[in-house]
Design a protein that fits this description.
The complex is a heterodimer of chains A (518) and B (186). With 518 residues, chain A is an alpha+beta fold. Chain A has 15 helices and 21 strands. Chain B has one domain. Classes of the chains: A alpha+beta (518), B alpha/beta (186).
Chain lengths: 518, 186
Amino acid sequence: MLFLVTSFLFTSCVEEPEALKIQSTENGQLMKVKAWFEENKTKLRLPERGSNLRSESQELILPFFEKEPDWDKFHHYYFPDGREVYEVNLQNKETPIFGNLLDSIRSIPSEELVIQNIMFIKNPEFERYDPIIARYYPKGELDVKSFKKMNYTKINEYWSGKLELFTYDEHHFIGFEFEEGKIINEITYSKNNTGAKVKDYKNADVRCTTYVLPVTNCVLTSSGTYCSSNYNDLVNVTYCSTGGSGGNYIYTYGGNDGTGSGTYIDPSGVTGTEYIVPIIPAPETFILNQFSNPCGSQIFKQLMKASILKSSIGNLNQANAIIQLLQDANDVEFIVKNSDLTSATGNTTKTKRYINSTSDKLEILIEFDNDYLENATRLSIARTMLHETIHAFLVYNFYKDPTGEFKQGLQNFATTKGYTDMNDVHHNFMPQYVDAIGYSLAVWNQVYGNSGNIPRSYFDDLAWGGLTFSQHNSTTNQYTWHDVFQDLVPSETERIRIQNVINNEANNEYSAKGEPCN
Amino acid sequence: MSIQQKVNLAISVLFVLMACSSQKNIQIKSDEYDLINFLLEQNDNYKVSQDFLSWDENSYSTYRDFNPSEIEEFDFLAINKELDLDSLFTSEEIDQLKNKIDSEKPMKLKKNAVIEPSKLVTNKMDVIYPASIMGVAYPIIIQGTRGKTFGFILSSFSEKGTYYSIYKKKDEFDWDIIHKTMIAIE
């Protein structure tokens, strides 16, 4: 058992494999894009209009640097109007970075902090691929994602931050502020004429100059984009040069407000003969929490707020650490939803891994039965979510490292115990998480549960849910207990007592301590 | 032979043909219920839902989904996980399977076709946790060109999960399992 726990901790820290499976047709197309880029990259400049930020323009224009796409790391998708897009990661060392990020997320290197991509948008009329630079700035540490996890059409609800779009030669034309996957604000920048403000970056190797620019909030409506004439905030754009080549560019700004909704953005006034800045749609979000049941959705979101729980729970909160790991999994979409789980089979949930035939993406899907969500207490539902998440974690690990120590450990566990069914393997392995589930539930209840003063032991009892029995004979009211539950709770009376706690919460019985989910 | 005799003969032939056809339908149907009843006997402690599981909702909608060798499964304890239907079946049998996959299937179990109708759960509201209930998809039966009969089925068990299985018929009451894998866990 200790080996398996060690394996779990080990595999939790293993970095995602970077290799992308490149479809041959996609690869062929990408090579065309690469050839076009190599031939035309020196022409990708907007026409000079006499001035820019560097020479007193009202526009925000960052210092230019040649882009170096990493052609092995790309996303391929289509805009809603059918235009083809290759979004390729940039391997440049130069990255404009929000100064407040450098302050707030000190532990993460800048090259891992910001995803910096170049979007090649195919021009439907001509054989050209007009580029746009997209930079994804996380709001906090938990929003730091890897390249594979997000692109312009796939921003999930767990991400908060800012997506800034620039022309190839670094004219900024629109920014989007996201809060948990929703666009809450759109931002344009123009120069502040009131003077400069200095952001003091004390780094011996860095020499910085800071400019202050106003931020204009824009609202998108069905008839177009409207921007306020008065600026709401100031932007500090700090240009820093280092002793090394390329230098670092840092720009910072304060808070802002406003609302916006998706529509087409026309960077009017920035078109030219050599480089046509394409019209692009607003970014798309990909919703992983697909609950239509509001109560189920709310509980899941609460459990997802690992950052809130983590500080008070510490290392015991393995269950939330697992949720975080799945949320960050790069190669699998981790989706939760409610549905009618096939009639009267008595299933409350199921977790599976499959290829979604619509999106052609690998998904780990957790489904919760509608009737269960209607009938159970919130406490029972939270418990079940944590339980299913651990199933998902195991399933994900088998996929991620099919020949690794973790899977080998579980195979040995199955062999030693004589199990021939995955159900037995999962449910006899998972009791090692009972403490973590119980602790997580207790804290969840303390923060969100509103179920009064419940002793910790009650949550530990409840944490056994789904791990106690494999069959129940309704005629004799006898259970076929799982081996490990029987080993760890040797008293039949105690097992029945624990099972009754689980049943009471699942059926929202009179003696249940949780509140109903409606 | 008089006209009347000819008419009688034609009617008789028609009846015989209809009877044969009807007999064939019953036989195909009984293969499906033979497999269902076999599973019910194997899982005697479970009640069974009258509603069939949906193949489509469990992501089994194309021939590729049914072919274990083409699907990367998460069940490392699966029986014969690399089974290749392309090798097992002739092209005619594969066509037969594809047609069956695309065909409409019944939604509910027939009460008079299961061995213990009293075990049927007809109303979801009657199910109170904890209850041991199983559900099955309407089996897909392939009549092999070499006289073999194969059955494909999904089965779901409360507190356990959902399984995809392929069986080869031995006789009316017995089937050999040639592939089984868990596709979802509860």
